[in-house]
Each structure stands twice: as structure tokens, then as C-alpha cells.
Design brief:
30% of the residues lie in helices and 37% in strands. The protein is α+β, with helices and mostly antiparallel strands. It has a single domain (31-154), classed as Nuclear Transport Factor 2, Chain: A. The protein is globular. Residues 1-24 form the signal peptide.
Length: 158
């Protein structure tokens, strides 16, 4: 299934049709605040803390896209997302949002900005801060906000 987002509306001459469209939209669009979208990152960070790849993977949609900081391979299935986190969670990642911009549409939302991910070397206990840019794109799926697309890339400048 391809994913498309269409912005805009179709204007029809009959006002009754316009009212029906407005009612249909309000019935299918969840009431969502920026604070609720911000809380999704806390859920993500808490899932990381469990070190359970399945818990992290459960936060993604059925058709996710993960473009991770430390992997060249795009992950586009739940199994591939899970496989990535099997290795990545061994470094005990902890994320901290540095900057954030949130936009909310009907059944999609985005949170974009910069973050710092602290990784811990399992053998030495040494911690490393990775400064990166991120894009979380969320989709409202099966009654909950899920990560549809996550992209993270290290900052190009020191």
C-alpha cells in the first residue's frame, strides 16, 4: 500500500454536502494537542529504557519507515524495525529533545527538531552523546498515535 497525504478540500455547490464532509471529518479526526504529541516521545524513550525491542516496535505503525542514525538500511516492516532495535538497545540509549516543532493534521502529526541521544558502552560504561536531527511522523492507527516514520541523522557540524 502506498501512502499519500492530500491537503485541501473539494468545494461542492450543495451546502448539505459541505456539512456532511465537515461532520465526517470531525468524526474521524482525533482531538489532539501538542502536549499529547510531545508525550509520545516520553513513551518512546521509556520503551528504549526497557531494552525490549518488541516494546519499541509496538510504537510503530503496521507499515513503518525507520531511517536510523547508525544503520544504512531503511527498515520498512515491523520485523525490520524490531531487528534494528535488537542491536541498538544494547547501548542503553536515552534521548533528550533539544529543539522541537510540532504540526498536527487530521490523522497525522509531526515532531521535528534536534535531539541528543546518550549511548552507554556495555563493556566500559563510557557514555557518548550523539547530537542529531530527527523527524517523527505519527499516524493515528487503530485508535492510537503510532510512529509512521522516524528519521535521525547526526549533526554534520561539530
Amino acid at each position: 500500500m502506498k501512502k499519500y497525504f492530500v491537503a485541501g478540500s473539494l468545494v461542492l455547490g450543495a451546502s448539505i454536502v459541505g456539512a456532511s464532509v465537515a461532520q465526517a471529518k470531525s468524526a474521524t479526526c482525533p482531538d489532539t494537542t501538542p502536549a499529547q504529541i510531545e508525550a509520545l516521545f516520553t513513551d518512546f524513550n521509556n520503551a528504549w529504557a526497557t531494552k525490549d525491542p518488541a516494546k519499541v516496535t509496538s510504537l510503530f505503525t503496521k507499515e513503518p519507515v525507520l531511517l536510523a542514525t547508525v544503520s544504512n538500511k531503511p527498515r520498512t516492516t515491523p520485523a525490520e524495525v524490531n531487528d534494528y532495535f535488537v542491536g541498538f538497545l544494547k547501548s542503553s540509549p536515552v534521548g533528550k529533545i533539544d529543539t522541537s516543532t510540532i504540526e498536527i493534521d487530521c490523522n497525522t502529526a509531526s515532531r521535528l527538531g534536534t535531539w541528543t541521544v546518550t549511548l552507554t558502552d556495555a563493556k566500559t560504561g563510557a557514555k557518548t552523546d550523539v547530537k542529531a536531527r530527527y523527524s517523527f511522523l505519527y499516524r493515528y492507527e487503530d485508535g492510537a498515535w503510532k510512529i509512521d516514520h522516524l528519521h535521525s541523522s547526526m549533526m554534520p557540524e561539530k
